[in-house]
Structure formats: structure tokens, C-alpha cells
Amino acid sequence: MRHIGVVVKRGRPQAAALGRELVAWLRQRGLSVLIDAESAPELYDGPGVSKAEIAAAADLIVVLGGDGTLLSIARCVHERAVPVLGVNLGGLGFLTAVTSEELFSVLADVLAGKFSVDQRMTLSATLHRKGMPMGSYHALNDAVISKGGALARIIDLETRVDGACVCTYKADGLIVSTPTGSTAYSMSAGGPIVYPSLGVMVLTPICPHTLTNRPMVLPDTSTVHITVRSETHQDLVMTLDGQEGYPLSNEDVIEIRKGPGMVALVQSPARDYFDVLRQKLLWGER
């Protein structure tokens, strides 16, 4: 590993201070450091590069922040599966499982090739309007079709899986999540926790009008088509990982399937997935 990408949560003095220390540590070892342009002003006097450029050139990416910071780079790296080392300086930190105290010892092992990764599935979402593809997007956690605005109106989302009709969800929205995203919005909406290595997708309706509309687990070979059937609702949006939003119109079709690549998250040597569940979600405590 010769080229190390660094992405730091903006506006967090602790993250900026650790980032400056990290950049100096890497350069002392003769490594090339690619600093995210948004983070660069807080780390050193010089320009940075885009997240897309980091994803294309880095051999390893170190993220200092929370899960949101990691998600912002994860959508760029799915095609190359560059190892991503997440260091938690945010809140929950479910994806960024390494602590700041562990950073340099873990990083030394990673640079020496002594590490393992979790290969995390991604989603690919393509928006079709009047039969024409408008764009394709990627997510590590989830793709969400939901309403906006101030009026509390439900929306109709006609849903098919591999061409077969599932139902028309009458709800505030619909979440399609990966196993990684099963502990995010989907879980808050009543969806199951899914072990991250399983090859599945989860459909979770948001506040469904019909109580029998429960979350559903599908194989990752499935193709989900969601057609918007809400003529009177003007504020519909598709959101990727809670960070990128795209407005929707009536009769739009969103096609969601397993993404073309994986995201490789460096495993913490100090804790496994169930340790994280217990520590972050207080799983099993009374």
C-alpha cells in the first residue's frame, strides 16, 4: 500500500486534530497521502482531491468521523473494493468500529498486510421516467422512496419482485436495504437485523396503512421495481444512504438490484459484529 486516502468529518475539531496527526504519520513513512478536498483546509495548506479521485487511486482509505462520513466515500469505492478503515469520531459509529486510540496500531498492522475485511453488498438504483432511464445511483445502506412536504398523506408504491406483483404499499414510504443498512433506517421502521455477510435485500414499509404489510427479506438475486402511483402528491423523493436525494414524479419506476461491486470494510481486531451490536445498540441488555 503506497497511496492512502484520508477523509475527515468536517467541522469537528477532534477529527481535524487527529487528521493532521495521521497525515504526518503517513508521510513520515514515505506514503503518498490523498486528502479529500472538503477536509483539506482543516488538515494542511494545500489542495485536496475529490472523493472519486481518492476511490480511483488509493490503496487504502482511512475515514475519521462517523457512519455518515464513511457512507459518503463508500458509494464511490464499490467498483474497486478499496479497503476502508473507519475510525469512530461521531455518534453511534456502527460502521466505523475502530476507536481513535486504536487507530495507529491498527493502521500499522493494515499497512503490514495483517488485517481482514468484511465484504459488504451494495445496491444499484435506476430511475426510469416515461420509459427512459434518468440515472443510476449506488448505496451501501439503503434506497428510500418517501414523501416530503407538510401534508400527512400516504403514497401508493406498486412493487414487483422479478416481475411478480408483491402489492401496492400504502405508506409513508418504502425502504430497500442491504444487510449493512438493516441496522439503520430499516431497523427504526421495524425491519430485522441481518448479518452483514448474508446475500439478501430487505423491503421495509414506513408506517404502512395496512398492518399486514410487514418487512420482507429477499435474495440478493432479486430485481425490485417500484412504481409511484400518487397523482396528488407533489413532494416525493428517492434518497440514497440518507445523503443524496432525487425528486420523483407520478408513474416514475425505480429499479433496485444488487450493486455491481462490494465495499471492503477493515475489521476491528478488538471486536466482532456481535460485540458491536452489544456496545452500540445495547443488544440483549435489560
Q: What would your notes on this structure say?
A:
With 286 residues, this protein is α+β, with helices and mostly antiparallel strands. The strands form three sheets. The chain has a six-stranded antiparallel sheet, with helices on one face. A six-stranded antiparallel sheet has the order 12-11-10-7-14-15, with no helix packed on it. The protein has a four-stranded parallel sheet with strand order 2-1-3-4, sandwiched between helices. It has helices at residues 13-28, 40-43, 51-57, 67-77, 103-111, 185-188, 273-281, and strands at 3-8, 32-35, 60-65, 84-88, 117-129, 132-139, 142-147, 155-161, 164-171, 173-177, 200-206, 216-219, 224-228, 236-240, 244-248, 253-266.
Short description:
The chain has 286 residues and is of the alpha+beta class.
Outline = globular
Measured between the Cα atoms of the first and last residue, the distance is: 45 Å
**Gyration radius over CA:** 20 Å
Q: Sheet with the most strands?
A: 6 strands, antiparallel
Strand content: 35-45%
Q: Report helical residue fraction.
A: 10-25%
Query: Helix/strand/pairing class, anyone?
Result: alpha+beta
Q: What is the N-to-C order of secondary-structure elements (H for helix, E for strand)? A: EHEHHEHEHEEEEEEHEEEEEEH
